[in-house]
Amino acid sequence: YGFQRRLNSLSAGVEGSGKGRRREYLFRWTGLGDGAHQYRFQLSTHADGSQPMIDRIGLTGDRLIVTDLPIGDYYWRVMSVQFADGQANGAWAATETLHIEARD
Predict the structure, then answer these.
(1) What is the largest CA-CA distance in the chain?
(2) Nearest to 37 by CA among 86, 3, 84
(3) Is 45 strand, coil or helix?
(4) pTM score, whole prediction
């Protein structure tokens, strides 16, 4: 039997900016490992990630801006799909939490 082991991991973070109702949230990630990468971003109000309100597939960049999220708790994650040697390998980053509260 043979197998291949590939490095395909992610680090991720989010930054918020703006005031009042007009706020932007910059979600960023970095994929590690050889080969071309595409990403999938999901944002949900459910801790298990079900029924995502945003589900973007095939992203080639390392960031996504989301604006005007209402007050509440959000759960987000990013998948890295790595293409190398004619194969695609996917790996999800850990689910992260974003808590938005009222502010001026």
Answers:
(1) 61
(2) 84
(3) coil
(4) 0.81
Give pLDDT < 70 ranges for the chain: 2-10, 18-21, 103-104
- The single-letter code of the amino acid at 30 is T
Query: pLDDT tens digits for 48-76?
Result: 999 999 999 999 999 999 998 999 999 99
Q: Measure the CA–CA gap between 48 and 80, rounded to whole angstroms.
A: 19
Tokens representing 93 are 């980053």
Task: Give residue 30's pLDDT.
Answer: 84
| C-alpha angle 4-89-26 in degrees, rounded to nearest 5 | 135
The torsion angle over the Cα atoms of residues 8, 94, 26 and 64, rounded to 10 degrees, is 50
Q: Cβ(43)–Cβ(60) under 8 Å?
A: no
